[in-house]
Design brief:
mainly beta; nine-stranded antiparallel sheet
């Protein structure tokens, strides 16, 4: 064995003893955070039924895979001992998950070896339990010491218990030892744990719990040995990460912070590097529920990159998180946006995907929703129905969101991020927001719609995800005083409308008779049903407020070469199968999709084409490119739904019939179709998952994490805005190991890239053309309006040359050419064919 492998590492905990708070320390990951706290130098745990696994991992030290030995010790104490409900507490070691060499993958959905003591005084370890018991008084303060020696395919371990106040005499209360066989070696994480020997004994902690109910506590954790490795950079907190945007000279930043507790008085500070020195420019209190700090700076010089750091004093230490506010790439010829969504935690920490994004080096990040799922983190959810529930429900939510942030914080720290919540982010399988209203009394969130969680909790979620967005177009709250965030984000010469396509949407029960409908109210499986009957008057998709915003935004091309709409889900039902690839999984129509209500969908598509905007989404776990139609196929613009980060619930686009008017060489599943709501769609590309469509191709084959991800068609999207050519290139990407910056040497998903023009975003066949407009400058804005109403027909930026405005009906038009403050207007324009 070589000398470097014999070298070991050691650890000794040093916890603040002057404070009580949820955040234990930067070198720990508690499962779940809501059931752990730091109190006067002790790690305290409350064993709740919803928390499931209760352990606290050490991030900085792990076990090497090579042979060697290690020891660890800790002082443990039980509280509220009940002889009928036996607790256990002690060590976990050799904890491994899906990727054993990646310490973050081992934090949950993992397994390891356990050794410790029970609340009846018995020592236990793998394959053994002591026959005698410790005195009850010893359980109030006990030092456990575990020594392990790993040789080949086995290891010897010894566990002993001592009185901490009598350690000097060297005599143990009790000890056990055993040799155990190892199936897969011995490596992975260290953790401390507590649980009940019978899981059903764990208490159901009420959401409105006011006082922490300690079941066990730990202090003075020590580890050493030549089998131990360390990396002191492997920490998380108290500054977790940052999200920022830069829009029209205003920089907004949200810093995610560890939960410092209600008694914290320290503020978070933003500092900028100027002339080689850090200058403090703003300070922010930490939000009680969201555990965020917020910064907003106007008159920002957007033509210089500015290094920043966010700092927070924690005891005697000054924590920091660094990044760079990039300059606005408004003069860059091509702007690149990365589109991501739908992150199950099975591939956490998504190191391959983050590395791929860094290699792609996008200008903008767009996370389209489902940054988390209810099961993420390996523990259940806490519902909040009243204000007293919100504190615990927030601590329940935060680590699920942290899993997302930890995965992508290194790519978010130096480029603008648009993060918008979808249904799972607010603990709904599907959500129809009813304009911010609650679930109707006597109704169901799964059929009637509405928000099931307390509005203060919903505001907390939005604070964590969208508070760095540019100011909303109209900040007036919706029902229950829930905020809004729909807005315009202008960066790199691309004007992006950020929408909320769930918050204002009507519920299925407003269109479907719950008493007579068979099966789920939001699922249509009856081939004989005319889907047009579901498009009832008065139903809402985007709502009047967002439609008004889009009408205004469509004509506003200030400082913009091109436009895009960013929202959660495509405006169509572009999935034929839900849950798998069998015929029994065929779903005719899904009311969760934005193909319904059809009238609202058509208005959204029409507003997008007025702006000549491409539409970018997530949600479907299925990458697609669709050319939309309203009156006719292909008369509107294109949508691109990116692949899921780590796909969970499977959807497929596998129509029984071949598409009509397919492009030459395109597969049968492409072409023109009516979706389940009879919306006209032309599918240009779809990335179906192999594991559900062709499972026979992978049965019995060993799979790495990368293979699992790519077999499920997980990945990400890249959208390139070519400003001079006025073209958009859409790419759906699988995930590669160690992707380099030589992007051209890698392959996209089959069917991509797809390149379309800005002109194709309003692809309606014209009735005729107005008088030509000569563009003598590099580019100018052209707006066409009806006379005398002034209604906008469309707007776009036109490059040098002659442009003939197209129109679609007879009448008189006004054509405006120029830039804001310098318009040339041509009135009473009529068709000149």
């Amino acid at each position: 064995m070589s000398a470097p492998l014999l070298m070991g590492a050691s650890y000794k905990s040093s916890l603040r003893n002057d404070i009580t708070r949820p955040f234990v320390g930067k070198e720990f990951w508690p499962n779940p955070q809501m059931d752990w706290q730091l109190k006067n130098g002790r790690m305290e745990v409350m064993i709740s039924k919803g928390g499931k696994t209760h352990d606290i991992h050490l991030l900085t030290h792990q076990l090497k895979s090579q042979e060697g030995s290690f020891s660890q010790s800790v002082r443990v104490s039980f509280e509220k001992i009940n002889p009928n409900k036996i607790k256990r507490a002690g060590f976990k070691f050799g904890i491994i998950g899906a990727m054993p060499e990646e310490y973050r993958s081992n934090l949950f959905l993992s397994s390891g070896y356990m050794a410790g003591v029970t609340s009846e005084g018995k020592l236990f370890g793998p394959g053994i339990e002591s026959k005698t018991t410790l005195p009850k008084s010893a359980l109030e303060d006990l030092r456990l010491t575990l020594k392990v020696e790993h040789k080949g395919d086995s290891c010897d371990y010894a566990l002993e218990a001592r009185n901490p106040s009598m350690e000097a005499n060297g005599k143990a209360f009790m000890s056990i030892k055993k040799t155990m066989r190892l199936k897969k070696g011995l490596l992975g994480n260290f953790a401390l744990f507590a649980d009940y020997s019978q899981k059903n004994h764990a208490a159901s902690i009420p959401a409105d719990m006011q006082e922490f109910q300690t079941d066990a506590s730990f202090q003075d954790w020590q580890i050493s040995g030549n089998k131990v490795k360390q990396n002191l950079d492997q920490t998380f907190g108290p500054i977790l990460w940052t999200q920022y945007t830069l829009h029209r000279g205003v920089m907004k930043m949200t810093a995610q912070v560890s939960p410092m507790g209600r008694m914290n008085r320290e503020k978070v500070h933003l500092e900028l590097l100027k002339e080689g020195k850090w200058k403090r420019v703003q300070s922010s209190a930490i939000h009680e529920y969201a555990s965020t700090a917020h910064f907003r700076m106007e008159n920002w010089n957007d033509q210089q990159p500015v290094p920043f750091r966010v700092v927070l004093k924690d005891g005697n230490e000054m924590a920091e998180w660094k990044g760079t506010i990039r300059k606005d790439p408004k003069n860059k010829k091509t702007i690149k946006l990365a589109a991501l969504s739908c992150m199950k935690d099975g591939a956490f920490p998504n190191q391959y995907l983050q590395q791929n994004i860094l290699a792609q080096n996008p200008d903008i990040l767009f996370f389209a929703g489902d940054q988390l799922y209810e099961s993420n983190g390996g523990y259940g959810i806490v519902r909040a129905s009243k204000i007293e529930d919100v504190a615990r429900a927030s601590l329940n939510y935060l680590p699920k969101y942290w899993i997302f942030g930890w995965s992508f914080r290194d790519v978010m720290k130096d480029r603008p991020s648009i993060v918008i919540p979808d249904d799972h982010d607010v603990y709904h399988g599907n959500i129809w927001g009813l304009g911010g209203g609650p679930v109707p009394e006597g109704g169901s969130k799964n059929s009637d719609g509405g928000y099931a969680m307390h509005p203060e909790w919903v505001r907390m979620v939005e604070r964590t995800q969208v508070s760095n967005l540019p100011d909303p177009y109209d900040p007036t709250p919706v029902l229950q005083d829930i905020g809004v965030y729909y807005t315009d984000f202008n960066y790199g010469g691309i004007s992006m409308a950020v929408l909320e396509d769930r918050k204002f949407k009507s519920g299925p029960a407003q269109a479907v008779d719950k008493k007579t409908h068979k099966g789920r109210v939001d699922h249509v499986r009856d081939y004989s049903m005319d889907p047009k009957v579901l498009d009832k008057p008065g139903l809402s998709l985007l709502g009047e407020r967002q439609e008004k915003f889009l009408e205004h935004w469509a004509g506003d091309y200030r400082d913009a070469s091109m436009k895009a709409i960013l929202s959660q889900s495509p405006f169509c039902a572009v999935a034929t199968h839900h849950g798998g690839g069998k015929d029994s999984n065929i779903l005719i129509a899904d009311l969760d999709s934005n193909g319904w209500p059809q009238s609202g969908r058509n208005r959204a598509i029409e507003l997008a084409r007025k702006a000549h905007a491409v539409m970018i989404h997530g949600d479907q776990h299925l990458a697609t490119v669709v050319h939309h139609g309203v009156e006719e196929w292909n008369d509107a613009g294109f949508s691109f739904a990116g692949a899921g980060i780590c796909n969970g619930y499977p959807r497929l686009w596998a129509p029984k019939e071949s598409g009509k008017n397919r492009r030459p060489g395109s597969p049968n599943y492409t072409g023109e179709f009516l979706d389940g709501f009879h919306n006209k769609i032309n599918v240009w590309a779809a990335a179906n998952r192999i594991d559900k469509q062709y499972p026979e191709k992978i049965i019995g084959k060993p799979t790495t994490m990368l293979e699992k991800l790519n077999n499920s068609a997980s990945g990400y999207g890249i959208v390139k805005f070519h400003k001079i050519e006025q073209e958009i290139t859409m790419e759906s990407w699988p995930i590669y190991e160690n992707m380099t910056s030589d992007i051209a040497s890698y392959e996209t998903h089959n069917g991509w890239p797809v390149t379309v023009s800005v002109d194709q975003q309003y692809n309606r066949k014209p009735l005729g053309f107005l008088a030509p407009v000569k563009i003598k400058k590099e580019s100018l804005i052209v707006r066409v309006r009806k006379e005398p109403s002034g209604e906008l027909v469309y707007a776009r930026r036109v490059t040098t040359g002659t442009y003939r405005p197209k129109v679609f009906e007879m009448g008189s038009y006004r054509v405006e050419v120029g830039e804001p403050g310098n318009w040339k207007t041509f009135k009473n324009q009529k068709i000149q064919n």
